[in-house]
């Protein structure tokens, strides 16, 4: 069974985005490919910084996908 978490894109660093969730705060954000976020959410790169998303976490604890709120 997958879990859904609130996620927010803090900022973009090159080709990666720093994402915070209830499990990963601003001092240790998750790094995710910008291309992946654009593909999964449909948001333009320019709209990602500050975006609120839903992160779907699989049974293995990995972030499986991201969705728009």
Any key phrases for this structure?
69 residues; mainly beta
Assign an overall shape: globular
Q: Give the number of helices.
A: 1
Integer-rounded radius of gyration: 11 Å
Tell me, rounded to a whole number, the average pLDDT.
95
Beta-strand residue percentage: over 45%
Distance between the termini: 20 Å
Segments where pLDDT lies below 50 for 5+ residues? none
Structural class: mainly beta
Count of distinct strands: 5
Written as H for each helix and E for each strand, in order along the chain, the element string is: EEEHEE
Placed side by side, the strands forming the largest sheet appear as: 3-2-1-4-5
Largest sheet: 5 strands, antiparallel
Proportion of helical residues: 10-25%
Q: What report would you give on this structure?
A:
The chain has 69 residues and is mainly beta. Helices cover 12% and strands 46% of the residues. The protein has 1 helix and 5 strands; from the N terminus they run E-E-E-H-E-E. It has one helix at 34-41; strands at residues 3-13, 16-20, 30-33, 52-57, 63-68. It has a 5-stranded antiparallel β-sheet, covered by helices on one side. A hairpin with a 2-residue loop joins strand 1 (3-13) and strand 2.
Short description:
The protein is mostly beta strands and 69 residues long. The chain has one helix and five strands, in the order E-E-E-H-E-E. Strands 3-2-1-4-5 form a five-stranded antiparallel sheet, covered by helices on one side.
């Amino acid at each position: 069974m997958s879990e859904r978490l609130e996620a927010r894109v803090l900022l973009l660093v090159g080709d990666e985005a720093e994402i915070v969730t209830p499990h990963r705060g601003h001092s240790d954000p998750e790094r995710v490919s910008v291309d992946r976020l654009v593909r999964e959410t449909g948001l333009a790169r320019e709209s990602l910084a500050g975006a609120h998303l839903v992160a779907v976490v699989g049974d293995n604890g990995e972030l499986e996908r991201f969705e728009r709120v």
